[in-house]
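Researcher: We plan to redesign the surface later, but first we want a full-length starting point. Tokens attached.
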């Protein structure tokens, strides 16, 4: 999603809306499916080492969110990349999109893979899902990384919410439309996918501060200084979480991880982000 300070409305209401909304263990780098909470949930495994679960942004796929940074992370980690309900290769089912349900689906998949404890890295809506995993399934979590995420509505500017109320499929980024049509088992359901993504955001209610404070896992908060999430909100989360670190990049939404639909020319910020992530994951746990 475009996450710059330049005219949210000019970039299209749904362009902002959608992108804020990213059987056994198979062979590395290949597509796999698992029966999880009524879903046939798609995942990929790359690399080897401590498990790191990747959670894409809303309206996105593994590739559109993490295509550039995933190979860097897989050099030292067993990267488990998931596609959530209705996203990418994972077909939709008859239930709403919610961060809570997707956190439960994520946890169920991790347990299905017989992983006792993992690190979780989510971008945008995927970061919201990662935070919910930290709240709802703390025993599964070693460390969390939440990039361009929020826990309160005022973490996003008023123009964002205004654009959400006027969201149109016509304004959905072409890169996300193309990815959906290419990967979805039901490409004809793009309109429904769009509408459910928008509804998830419109229905969002603030999470209690005490729920955020309950996240005991060390958490790295990442954002861009021109992100759609206000930098002040990232700082607020950093102050609120008991074991948090903060990284703010000179970039817009998605640029610092190399997201495929992020604006601006390609750079090496994603390499710097990968280095910071690796340093955070390698750092000592509290009490060590």
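Model: Full-length starting sequence:
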């Amino acid at each position: 999603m475009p996450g710059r300070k330049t005219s949210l409305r000019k970039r299209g209401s749904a362009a902002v809306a959608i992108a804020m909304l990213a059987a056994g263990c198979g062979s590395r780098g290949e597509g796999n499916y698992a029966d999880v909470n009524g879903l046939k949930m798609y995942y990929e495994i790359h690399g080897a080492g401590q498990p790191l679960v990747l959670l894409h942004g809303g309206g996105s796929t593994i590739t559109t969110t993490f295509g550039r940074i995933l190979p860097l992370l897989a050099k030292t980690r067993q990267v488990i990349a998931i596609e959530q309900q209705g996203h990418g290769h994972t077909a939709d089912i008859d239930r709403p999109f919610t961060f809570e349900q997707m956190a439960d689906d994520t946890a169920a998949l991790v347990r299905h893979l017989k992983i006792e404890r993992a690190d979780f890295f989510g971008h945008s809506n995927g970061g919201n899902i990662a935070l919910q995993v930290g709240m709802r399934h703390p025993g599964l979590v070693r460390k969390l990384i939440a990039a361009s995420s929020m826990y309160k509505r005022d973490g996003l500017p008023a123009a964002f919410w205004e654009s959400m109320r006027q969201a149109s499929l016509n304004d959905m980024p072409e890169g996300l439309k193309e990815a959906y049509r290419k990967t979805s088992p039901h490409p004809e359901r793009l309109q429904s996918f769009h509408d459910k993504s928008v509804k998830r955001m419109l229905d969002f209610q603030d999470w209690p501060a005490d729920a955020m404070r309950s996240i005991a896992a060390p958490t790295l908060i990442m954002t861009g200084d021109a992100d759609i999430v206000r930098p002040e909100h990232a700082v607020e989360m950093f102050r609120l979480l008991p074991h948090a670190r903060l990284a703010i990049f000179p970039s817009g939404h998605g640029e610092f991880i190399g997201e495929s639909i992020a604006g601006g020319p390609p750079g090496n910020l994603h390499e710097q982000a990968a280095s910071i992530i690796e340093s955070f994951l390698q750092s000592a746990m509290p009490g060590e």
